[in-house]
Design a protein that fits this description.
There is one protein chain. The mean pLDDT is about 90. It is globular and about 35 Å long. It is of the alpha+beta class and about 80 residues long. It has two helices and three strands, in the order αβαββ. It has a three-stranded antiparallel sheet, covered by helices on one side. The protein has one domain. GO terms for molecular function: O-methyltransferase activity. InterPro entries: SAM-dependent_MTases_sf, SAM_O-MeTrfase.
Length: about 80
């Protein structure tokens, strides 16, 4: 489970290297209490969360992602081959 939001994309890459195909990566508080959806929020952690979610969902074909609206949001990504 990833909770280091300062360098989130690097943490996702490390998780990818550590997991076998079918392994699951969890990012807790992925939505930052609604800050990610608010375009006026420009603090570094919110920007990091926003960029990471976009990367995993839209441009990174290494993952099968699912964003769950639980608590502050949980991003669940299954590693593909």
């Amino acid at each position: 489970m990833i909770r280091d939001f300062e360098d989130l994309l690097e943490s996702v890459d490390q998780g990818f290297r550590a997991l076998r195909p079918g392994g699951i990566l969890l990012i807790d508080s992925a939505l930052g209490g609604g800050k990610v959806a608010d375009p006026t929020q420009r603090d570094p952690i919110t920007i990091s969360r926003r960029e990471t979610i976009k990367s995993i969902k839209e441009t990174d074909d290494r993952w099968e992602p699912m964003l769950l609206p639980l608590g502050e949001g949980v991003l669940v990504a299954t590693k593909l081959n």
